[in-house]
């Protein structure tokens, strides 16, 4: 994950966040380019005509039918999410877990030294949405139970939304090969109608199977990899949100900066190793309560 903002400072309460956009995911871009390119190069090395793989009718059948099937399968919300989530493929604008830990430790120091109201100024500099909400709640002196209830509701919706686009592309990955076969069958039917001219039968069969190439190719080079990358990004967001929720609750309980840093770094490491998913936030909350009780 890339760092969306460069920060300086620590327990002295000074924090400078410089805005910058998400970094370019070069691996995704190269994969999107190299996948089809290697297929075309392989066709050329085998002595085939690369132009024979470009069939507008086959593309319309396979891609058009897949889009239509997804429109029937999903609500407009999911379809919009699939379009907007494409940015997750080529950009990485998530902070690193340990950068969030350092920022939370700084906020804990400010809260301990100057009170929650002093955190209001940081909400205008912070870049991670969940953390912005958390420090605003502390600055407004919200009760701990209300903070927990807020995060339970908001993060559930956030995590559902972050996986919506992946669901659409995963389904498309299943539809594409099927419609590729459908396109091939339609092409063969058309070829059978022209058996009176044997000189064009071979060409017609070859053209018919281009639809199968499109179906299998788009599924395995585009749809399924996109779904996987979107799920990876969503999983990373859940980990970061877990750290933020645990940190905000620790700050609300009055933990010191060093205690918050030590507690969250241990939690971030275990969460990365175990990949607990959306339930990890509640596990951190339970650990936090046991720590306070001790």
Span from first to last CA?
35 Å
Helix content: over 70%
Radius of gyration over all CA atoms, rounded: 26 Å
Number of helices: 12
Average pLDDT value?
80
Largest sheet: 2 strands, antiparallel
How many structural units, i.e. domains?
1
Uncertain spans, ≥5 residues at pLDDT below 50?
1-14, 16-21, 271-294
Strand content: under 5%
What's the SSE pattern?
EEEHHHHEHHHHHHHH
What topology, given as strand order, has the largest sheet?
1-2
Note the overall shape: elongated
Structural class: mainly alpha
What is the count of β-strands? Answer: 4
Task: Explain what the structure shows.
The protein is elongated and about 90 Å long. 73% of the residues lie in helices and 4% in strands. The protein has helices at 26-45, 56-73, 76-84, 87-90, 97-114, 120-123, 129-139, 144-192, 201-208, 210-252, 257-274, 280-293; strands at 5-8, 16-19, 23-24, 91-92. A hairpin with a 7-residue loop joins strand 1 (5-8) and strand 2. The protein is mostly helical. The chain has one domain (55-293).
Descriptive terms for the model:
single chain, 294 residues, mainly alpha, two-stranded antiparallel sheet, 12 helices, 4 strands, elongated, disordered C terminus
